Amino acid sequence: MKIKPPLLLYFVACLFYMVSVCVGNGEMMLLSKPVIIPSMLFYYIQETKQRINWNYIVIIFLCFIGDMLTLLDIEGAHLVIISVFLIAYCFYLKSITDDLLLNQLKITYKKNFLVLLICLFFLIYLLITILDLLVESQAENLLLLLFYGIVLVLIGGVSSFNYILKQTRFTFFMLIATLCFVISDVFYILRAHFEEVEVFSLFNNLPQVLSYYYLTKYYILKPAPMKR
């Protein structure tokens, strides 16, 4: 199957960006990362068979703003970056909640319910652990970080629920995109408050750039809303 030019551009940009992260080359980062999200946007426009989903456009635009602020490393922009991504996640939460409502909230097997409980327990445990570390380090804006964490837990729970109810390609991409968001953001927050641990940068950046691919595939495959 022939690879689409925007998708090829995305993978090349991701490769160059991750190499630049590993070697600490700031110039290569500035050249490669601004290409990643626009290439995914063009891929979405080229591949979608439905009307443009404006939730996706808003999410990808906010993520681009957050990425550029992070890349430029503007002093004092930490709060703005978290706020921008938080708004993006709220739009994403709305999309996946709409999908959940379409699935009629039915769980057919007790085993599935147990899997969902395990996922929620893990996410809540992760949130509490991260907040405990931030309290010990006397981090600022704890209330905002708490709300941010709650939104991530909700996204993780709703995505898991969707996949349990309906195991399709679009719910799979939804679940993987969510997993990438959670991993990336956990290590972003840890990196922001424990800068001496360099490996956090790799675990923050790799899932982040991959999340845009899975997010785009989710919106491409997402069923169109039913007409009333």
List the helices and strands and how they pair.
Layout: H1 5-23, H2 26-47, H3 54-72, H4 78-102, H5 110-136, H6 142-165, H7 169-193, H8 199-221
Helix pairs in contact: 1-2, 1-8, 2-3, 2-8, 3-4, 4-6, 5-6, 6-7, 7-8
Describe this structure in words.
- There is one protein chain.
- The protein has 228 residues and is mostly helical.
- Helices cover 81% and strands 0% of the residues.
- The protein has eight helices and no strands.
- The chain has helices at residues 5-23, 26-47, 54-72, 78-102, 110-136, 142-165, 169-193, 199-221.
- Helix 1 packs antiparallel against helix 8.
- The radius of gyration is 18 Å and the shape is globular.
Task: Please tag this protein with its features.
mainly alpha
Mean pLDDT: 82
Helix content percent band:
over 70%
Helix-strand string: HHHHHHHH
Give a quick account of the main beta sheet: strands, pairing sense, barrel closure.
none
Strand content: under 5%
Tell me the distance between the termini.
38 Å
Question: How many DSSP E strands?
Answer: 0
Low-confidence stretches: none
| Shape, per Cα inertia axes | globular
Report the structural category: mainly alpha
Number of helices: 8
Global Rg: 18 Å
